[in-house]
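Input record, target 12 of the design panel.
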């Protein structure tokens, strides 16, 4: 170990560096200096080579022998320690720089008002502070925020860091949402009203939706899509009395929005406190408990379009737009949801029913 540590333009001089200079100026051996100081040659050697630090006892002996203040040696040690921290922080920043480049920093400027960064160092520091981590690489650890399993092939660091970034953003924003204690019975009572919102405009149903969820102990967060995250939605319990339900506004066709919403609602009702549910476009990132995912899918399908009603429709590829519209009106649901169901099941072509489908435009900016 050297008594000089360098990294880029940062240099840290161990107190042993100065002791070696003093011994050379005195024109004596290290053994004699050790004898005069009242310590062993081994202790002195370790000190000179930066393998041990200045203790109070060593500082006292050097002070008496050389006629300096004790604080001189303690300050040299303190300065060295601080420089070592500075060097380690610089190394950490450089190691995180490539990872930070995988994150769309402008997203956080636009969405949560993160300050503009003049350098990659600023980006790393600002992101670490926002995500509340000491190092961005911590967000790649398997147990950070989530507990889903990944396949042997695993996803890329780019997918993982951005998915965690999106979820952490939702968690940060959720802290500003007041909720009552979680109440499953109340949530079930509100389901018919939530379903009836499918025929309303976003400006009508979103405020009421937030109210309903907060009343049931759910912090509902609607976020813009973060590039490379692959996450469409997530459910994470904060405590036994509070849960975060987050969705993004990517490709907000009415049918996809409502299906995703009721899918996430089912995950809330499943009340698996220790499980984080993630709706993802990346296969390896999907929750490992496929049975719960299938259950959530089935719930969303059947609640939006009751099976007994769907049977009556008896859909075929010849089912007309008017028939779909009339059926949707009869069961009190947006026609785009019915059309989306038929397209998903391959009954009608994907390019059908463009007039029945609706794309929601939900602009979100500086929400926290």
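The sequence produced for target 12 reads:
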């Amino acid at each position: 170990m050297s008594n000089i540590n360098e990294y880029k333009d940062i240099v840290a001089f161990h107190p042993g560096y100065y002791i070696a200079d003093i011994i050379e100026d005195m024109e004596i051996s290290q053994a004699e200096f050790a004898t005069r100081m009242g310590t062993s040659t081994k202790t002195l050697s370790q000190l000179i080579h930066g393998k041990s630090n200045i203790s109070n006892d060593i500082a006292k002996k050097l002070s008496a022998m050389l006629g300096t203040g004790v604080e001189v040696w303690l300050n040299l040690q303190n300065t060295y320690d601080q420089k070592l921290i500075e060097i380690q922080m610089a190394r950490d920043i450089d190691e995180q720089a490539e990872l930070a480049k995988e994150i769309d920093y402008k997203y956080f400027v636009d969405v949560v008002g993160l300050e503009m960064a003049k350098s990659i160092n600023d980006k790393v520091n600002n992101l670490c502070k926002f995500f509340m981590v000491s190092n961005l690489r911590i967000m790649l650890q398997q147990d950070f925020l989530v507990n889903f399993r990944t396949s042997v092939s695993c996803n890329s660091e780019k997918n993982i860091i951005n998915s965690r970034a999106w979820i952490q953003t939702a968690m940060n924003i959720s802290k500003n949402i007041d909720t009552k204690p979680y109440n499953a019975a109340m949530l079930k009572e509100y389901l018919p009203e939530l379903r009836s919102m499918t025929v309303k405009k976003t400006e009508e149903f979103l405020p009421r939706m937030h109210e309903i969820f907060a009343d049931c102990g759910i912090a509902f967060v609607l976020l813009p899509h973060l590039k490379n995250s692959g996450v469409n939605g997530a459910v994470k319990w904060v405590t036994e009395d509070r849960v975060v339900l987050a969705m993004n506004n990517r490709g907000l066709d009415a049918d996809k929005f409502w299906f995703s919403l009721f899918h996430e609602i089912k995950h809330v009702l499943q009340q698996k406190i220790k499980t984080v549910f993630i709706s993802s476009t990346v296969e390896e990132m999907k929750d490992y408990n496929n049975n719960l995912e299938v259950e959530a899918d089935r719930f969303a399908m059947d609640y939006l379009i009751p099976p007994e009603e769907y049977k009556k429709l008896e859909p075929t590829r010849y089912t007309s737009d008017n028939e779909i519209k009339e059926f949707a009106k009869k069961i009190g649901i947006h026609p785009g949801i019915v059309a989306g169901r038929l397209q998903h099941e391959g009954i009608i072509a994907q390019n059908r029913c463009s007039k029945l489908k609706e794309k929601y435009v939900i602009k979100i900016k500086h929400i926290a």
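The longest strand covers residues 231-239.
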